[in-house]
Amino acid sequence: MEHHWKELIPVDRYTVRSNGVLHDFDRTVLTLLYQPLIGYRALSLYMTLWSELELLSEKETTHHSLMVLMQCSLKEIYEERLKLEGIGLLKTYVNKEEPKLFIYELQPPLTPEQFFTDGMLNVFLYNRIGKHKFRQLKQFFSTPSIDRTKFSPVTRAFHDVFASVHVEQMVAKMNEETQEDLRLVDGYEYIGRKENTYDLSDDVFDFELFFAGLSKYMVPKRAITPKVKEAIKKLAFLYGVGPLDMQKIVMSVIDPSDHIDIDALRKAVHEWYEFERGGAPPNLSSRVQPLPYRTMTNVEPKTKEELLMKQLETISPRQLLIEISGGAEPSMSDLRLIEDIMFQQQLLPGVVNVLIYYAMLRTDMKLSKAYVEKIASHWSRKNVKTVKEAMELAKKEAKMYQSWAKEKSKRTSRKAVRKELLPEWLNMDYSQNDDQDKDENINIEEKRRELEERLKKYRDE
């Protein structure tokens, strides 16, 4: 990821438009269903842009005015914008001129029915707000159904109400000028409301391995329709189902006509999850690095760095936090932070493990929310998928991360900022000659050994 100021600066201009008409009811959906997932800051940015939709009326203004309006920094606006993009509430376009011009196209939220039957967002909401509140919201966004079998339809058709026009009369009036009036002027498009969704990359699931296995069972590829494929992606991402297990699940629900019922697929995946995980609600922090993104499988570690890589590929972020804390359950704030970056930044579990390990050594065995989110956003932009890539990027960008840590330290303390040191698996390319630096080096080495000791049982397995 580049620095946010490389992506946009205060003088860059923007205009706001929407993908169709936004309704007042959308505000309720955004507040009650989306806000628990994206946070109040991202919601505030969406609402502000919505208000500017009518205010600007296709006019341009600067990002500095948005900073003044929201009373926050450009960095905060940029980070919250990414959350809106990731969850499908905003599409951003930019030209290549200087200063840049951004188009922020607001996307309508999913309808309550789409949200509660999504298969992923509804489960995340359930885990975030709990059973009682989730049931309360589901009831709020539903209404008693009507048994229409007890009624007879009496609605009139169009031709029953409106008189027909003879073809001769119609052709006579349809001269060239009239036909031109019926066409939309070039460069314009009609106001409407297109169906909205959020993007989930195919990278979250190894479809190549999945299809290769299905071909052995003579399952036609046409059975995996676009809707089925999207459902597989969401279910695999949410429940941590691998391609081989998903093959078996799909085989169990496909009918003789090669049709796959998505509801049956969801139920089968849920039953698989209950059997594998004992019925605990799915959460991202309990997932482990997917096999296609492991580099140490069937490899005997030869160095401490390779040993650490193999550990971080085979342990979940939640279990890593438990081991680091000596067996104690992680705090809800730490788990929420980890799940937020995995969901919003779509970081894989192994990559998150490197981030946890790195941050723990750099911030006195604590997870600093701002620091973790900043690095997570960086890795997401760089499309980091493996533990090895994360470690190499941390090594390459060490000085930049060090400056971020110093910025945080300056904000939280008036004391002189100590020189940040790096984990052993990073390249130490700084001069450290004074006694204070040597003391810190000893301190960081002690923390590293302590982490290694707590992860020892995973080395032995």
UniProtKB/TrEMBL annotation:
The keyword Nucleotide-binding applies. Residues 434-461 form a coiled coil. Gene3D superfamilies: DnaD domain-like (1.10.10.630). InterPro entries: DnaB/C_C, DnaD-like_sf, WHD_DnaB. It holds the Pfam family DnaB_2. Residues 329-392 form the DnaB/C C-terminal domain. Residues 10-180 form the Replicative helicase loading/DNA remodeling protein DnaB N-terminal winged helix domain. It comes from the Bacteria. Keywords: ATP-binding, Coiled coil, Helicase, Hydrolase, Nucleotide-binding. One of its GO terms (molecular function) is helicase activity. Belongs to the DnaB/DnaD family. This is Replicative DNA helicase loader DnaB. It comes from Parageobacillus thermantarcticus.
